[in-house]
Amino acid sequence: MTAHPVPAHPAPALPQYDAGRIAGLLTPAGAADALAEALRAGLDPEGCPQRSSLPAPGGELLLMPAASAEYAGVKIAGVAPGNPERGLPRITGSYLLLDGATLCPVALFDGAALTALRTPAVSALALRHLAPAGPAGRLVLFGSGPQAYGHLDAVLAEREPAEAVVVARDPGRAGALVAYARGRGVAARTGTAADVAGADLVVCCTTAREPLFDGRLVAPGALVVAVGSHEPGARETDTALVRRAAVYVESRAAALREAGDLLVPEAEGAIGPGHISGTLADLVTGRISPGGRTGCPQLFKSVGMAWEDLAVAVALFRAAGTSSAT
């Protein structure tokens, strides 16, 4: 059998976007705008492909594909719990963006940096719809890693908290985040879980597997955002909060598959699947308005979804094209 030669088509160098370039192209508010635009254009998160997970020697390997009319993309991410002790990031990986019509690669992004931008952007979009407009009172921020910094920036882009309280296991890292917040012009201090009692906004971005605070302390009308886990058995909020809160998620299907914050209370018989008040798409498109349940806390539980990575990667790619053309 004669082998037919394959025509040589030298591929152009693939543009690569590291953490520094990503940070310079798009703010969390700009990324939130891209997410809102995708939802208003008709994207249905309920149809988004599931996250694939594979156990690996160092932790967990995740594969997250998504496609739209113009682009497709896939994130390959590693979650390596032992990396921080080695001086390496806990989240690793890359995001490959492809042209939708040809499926030819068009850009490669640092996966951890993309996640560090995307997740706070999702929270910022939820905050726009669930938190009262205008200046806020106390922000309580659980965590001191990259997501904590990203969420602080995202909150400051949307609201003006009078005070930021950092609750973290490592005093040195907590102090560093407090200093960063003060540098952003916010009165900040370290605190304890009991500080949620006077909070208007509580943001949880930790690796905790058990609840971080007593949900009975959260005031009616306060907003709690929990982003730290996508595992059915791990949670940052307790059953008491979930039972009394109006709950919003990115996707009902994803939440009922991965959100331990909801699945553990459901297994305990404290809530049912119908406890979810609405989704991010419901809020953004105006299908529902928050406040259907009054006199209670609001809880937004995020697990992270592939469509979000794609929407933000496309926005970054377009922003890079615009900046290079000027």
Provide a compact summary of the structure.
With 326 residues, the protein is of the alpha/beta class.
The gross shape turns out to be globular
Helix and strand succession?
Answer: EHHEEEEEHEHEHEEEHEHHEHEH
Largest β sheet strand count, sense and barrel closure = 8 strands, parallel
Number of helices: 10
Proportion in β-strands: 15-25%
Low-confidence stretches: none
In angstroms, what is the radius of gyration?
20 Å
| Average pLDDT | 92
Distance between the termini: 54 Å
Kindly state the percentage of residues in helix.
25-40%
Salient structural properties:
326 residues; 8-stranded parallel beta sheet; 10 helices; 35% helix
Textual characterization of the structure:
This protein has 326 residues and is α/β, with parallel strands linked by helices. The protein is 35% helix and 24% strand. Strands 9-8-7-10-11-14-12-13 form an 8-stranded parallel β-sheet. The protein has a 6-stranded mixed β-sheet with strand order 1-6-5-4-3-2. Helix 2 packs across helix 10, helix 3 (111-130) packs parallel to helix 4 (146-158) and helix 3 packs across helix 10 (306-325). The longest helix is centred in the middle third of the chain and has 20 residues, at 111-130. The protein is globular and about 60 Å long. The termini are far apart.
